[in-house]
Amino acid sequence: MPRRAALFAMLTFTAFAPCAGAAEPGKESSMKNAPLVVPLRSQKLVQNAAGYNVWQSRTEERKLVPAETALVLCDVWDKHWCRGANERLAPMLPRMNALVKALREQGVLIVHAPSDTMKFYEGTPARKRVLDAPKAQPPADLPHDDPPLPVDASDQGMDTGETSWSIAWKQQHPAIEIDQARDAISDSGAELYNLYRQRGIKNVMVMGVHTNMCVLHRTFAIKQLVRWGFSVALVRDLTDTMYNPAKSPYVSHEEGTRLVLEFIEKFWCPTVTSEELLKGLPQ
What we know:
- This protein has a single domain (2-158, 168-279), classed as Rossmann fold.
- 30% of the residues lie in helices and 20% in strands.
- It contains ten helices and eight strands.
- The strands form two sheets. A six-stranded parallel beta sheet has the order 5-4-3-6-7-8, with helices on both faces. Strands 1-2 form a two-stranded antiparallel sheet.
- The N and C termini lie far apart (39 Å).
């Protein structure tokens, strides 16, 4: 717990979005430099009045500078082998794209990270932007507790009848706009570390799928970012899990997702909603 508390204390967050209508002269640039106060939710183990250990939710407001911040879209693929995964992602896509556009306009670095699809983006400016970043040596991993997840996904989370799986994706979902002039494309933690060092990125927000798998475990995702010492937050309403209610703890898919979100808030990083991010944008 002391190590987790120390890591949470490092968090410094803000976020941004475009204002409605035309900006006044000089106002647009000042808004891009203005920090946004964002409520970050985490879970802390405390003793209650009766002396029992209990998990307590807490929300702390933090500030984030756009130029020092990245938003990573983790494995938001065009097609998943699981029908349920495709159906749950579909209603999130418009909100994902809206958040991407809003934060991009405020100077946040948008990172598209659809794993196993880099050949599709070969030669594009956003891909080249990552490859051209000077090489940097990542620091040694910070020690960090790594307790087991609260849901059993040993069957790959197959909740819609699939009996086997294979790669079905070829690119990021086309509903998410890629700005080749400003964004970055990579599925490599080492590549993105180079870019983050070049840009002075300190804070990384992560959204996408799936929270108990890729969002936690990819080389560019939550666990590695925390171990490298970045300030990290999960956008908790724009994510999903691979979980089958036929497996432990034998709860609904929605409850399984909630349990994983709480697990992340307890042991890895705080969370924030897209609504909270958009609501706090400069006006």
